[in-house]
Amino acid sequence: MNMSGAVAGPTVQIIAIGDELLEGRTSDTNSRRIQQALGAHAVQVSLIQVVPDREEAIVRALDRTGAGDLVFVTGGLGSTPDDLTRDVVARWAGVDLAEDPEVKQLLQERWKKRGIRTSPGSVRQSQVPRGMTPLPNPVGSAPGLAGGLCGRTLVMLPGVPQELQGLLPAAVKWLDENGHLPRPRRTLLWRTAQASELALVRTCSDIKLKFPRLEWSWWLTDWGVDIRLAAPAGSAGADDLAAAEPEIESALGRLIYSRRSETLPQVVQRRMLDRKATLAVAESCTAGMIGATMTDQPGSSGFFRGGILAYADQVKTGQLGVPEDLLRDKGAVSQETVLYMAAGCRQRIGTDYAVAVTGISGPEGGTEDKPVGTTWIGIATPESVFARKYRFPADRERNRLLTVAAAVDSMRRVLELGDGDPPWQAADSWCRPS
Amino acid sequence: MNMSGAVAGPTVQIIAIGDELLEGRTSDTNSRRIQQALGAHAVQVSLIQVVPDREEAIVRALDRTGAGDLVFVTGGLGSTPDDLTRDVVARWAGVDLAEDPEVKQLLQERWKKRGIRTSPGSVRQSQVPRGMTPLPNPVGSAPGLAGGLCGRTLVMLPGVPQELQGLLPAAVKWLDENGHLPRPRRTLLWRTAQASELALVRTCSDIKLKFPRLEWSWWLTDWGVDIRLAAPAGSAGADDLAAAEPEIESALGRLIYSRRSETLPQVVQRRMLDRKATLAVAESCTAGMIGATMTDQPGSSGFFRGGILAYADQVKTGQLGVPEDLLRDKGAVSQETVLYMAAGCRQRIGTDYAVAVTGISGPEGGTEDKPVGTTWIGIATPESVFARKYRFPADRERNRLLTVAAAVDSMRRVLELGDGDPPWQAADSWCRPS
Description:
Two copies of one chain form a homodimer. By secondary structure, chain A is α/β, with parallel strands linked by helices.
């Protein structure tokens, strides 16, 4: 749900070039990256065209843009013969291609470092349509290209997602400095976990009414919901933004895990490393997804030790010390079992903290008492062991992802709140009182 | 690399409609599903347009299609006021919308089952542009719509990926039966793992020269590479296909894990359940990704028991019984360590089989002897313990994914070859002799 109001600035179009995008082998995900990079500038993309590596298709796509448009062109900047973008754009605009000595030198240094002689392909990559500015590529070889051609502002970027992502900040900076984008709006960002979009919209509804000039955006993420608040450009909205900030902070409270671009696992890793603490996991229904998430980033061996995948009951008793009679009486998905799992894991792996989960992901295994989605999350700290029941509303795949997000975020809260305080509260909309 | 030759049949276009596709919140992945569903029919998509939920944008996109084109339109078929597709297409084509009694009845039965009275939105969903045929939706409420309008063949499908996927077979069947698609080609499919695309192209190069009329396609998947071989329509190619089949089978050998749409984890699950065998995992560098993969599908509790995440050395010694002096002398990433991990895991969890992995994913931790990407995979069976060194060529994220694919596929081979035979051979291009 995007609630932003009218949008100023140029019409933005994206042309994604590549046979692989039209043969079912891959989807265009670069457009999303471009849109997100433009987020603060209050411009909106009006058309994406995906076309094959063929001159007439690229020319037709360029012809569909209009004078004054800001046009991103992705793909086809590599060094092989089917990389046509540079040449076709120059021909379409009726300008020469000229070798750029600086680009050439950068490419040669790059090849030299890798022990490769300059190839004919790299020579092509140093050619720049007259009037365009090369943008150095921090990840790969092909530079980005930005400039005015045929009344449009064109930005050409490589199709390899990592290279495009690496070049985007420089491209947006170039556009901004050359006056091709509306001035960035003042924005505030809150990244939240453990509450649904609907619950957050309700939580913020009074603040929304109080500050009607502010523009709200809500984005679903892997970890929860991001909330972006923007002051409309050129108004007194900046004052509203400053006034709304403490009210939102207070309304969201512990739901906020970050106010910048950090992901939830990055926050947990940073806080673990800061206090030189160690973590282990005991996973039943997620069967390794939490461990995999906690080790996604370089440096995770500084705090993550390992854990027990206790998918079957025999592993809960044998490797985590859950008593057999308790498991029989209370069931594998119960407060008692998850408390034993967390405490047993912390003790056996020998860490400061342990996170444990046990739940019914579905589609089978639900009962009237414990329907599909019922999940217990437990956390053992040096001072205590906590447990909380969740009731996730989705299918197997999504329930498992929600379990991972809730478990990692509960750990984040313990690190922020202290080892003796339960990390949960009523506003966590995935929780139901047990 | 798609090596198919000239393509017959109509020009295919896709129009994806939805504000969320233009605001950076989601990417268009439906086009890829459509392309794959058309795969056997030798037609190729020439343009994808992504446009917002606005009448003039949708009309302009429709105007860019040509007479004779086959046009898929996705999104905007729901029941809310911003779902415009049905109305805009009817206005653009100059035809009436009329309520379809069968669709209305299906919708009413659907709502009734859920205890909901027919809503005004559902009434809109039963309206059909004159001349179009409704296609029942097996997943959601909005029917698909197919028919000829303004000289084009139009297929309108919901934007929700599960609903689109559910409707695609009926849509392709309708197109086929009404003569809008070239007759499906005879095709053969081999799904392979543990060999790179380049290695497979080399392996098949002689067969390719021998049967020049056949069309080859190579697709990267999560598990390896799919190879599709197609006989060109209306030729003697079908004989070539039959003659090439045994040659390819023999050249690819154990690299093949499936000849139909099954995924690699589905194959392992099926074979495990067939022989009532049980599995455990011991994961270092992947830290749970193999366990998560083995439990992706319903029914996994029939064979998967659990495992040990031995990210830190203390867990390898404490929970898996790897001797401390061996770990010190040989290192955590070594044949000896992975053999102990696999055997220790199988014994401690009490399963028939155990898969173990230990490797250097990067970006840190590489040495001259053991560069980033060096990974050992071990498998313990009731008869033996095997280990093999791999050298993956990518970054942290991709090396971890390649490790998962190689480990799961090695387990698949043991299930096919027998408990006493090592599952590896020289043609596995990710392996390097140790």
